[in-house]
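Write out this protein's structure.
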Amino acid sequence: LAMYVYGQLGVKLTHYTGAQYYEGLHIPLSEIAPGDLLFFDQNPVLGPQHEGIYIGDGRFIQAPHTGDVVKISSLDEPTYGFSFVGAVRPYNLN
């Protein structure tokens, strides 16, 4: 989802979610803005394995897995609040 959205804006993202996290400019949670990428890690050994695009008010859009529909989720949901590892401002990945 993030690759498609940012590709439409002319921003090329690395295919691997973990690489996007490590290449980008990290933004403190208190400073995230709509458009920032949010990263989640449900297995600390593997690093970030999932991402969403922040849309404001603690919410983000995500495609949970291939074949599923795009959803709006909240950082207040336990699954995402506990697995949140950081945010990246993607337009710095060029």
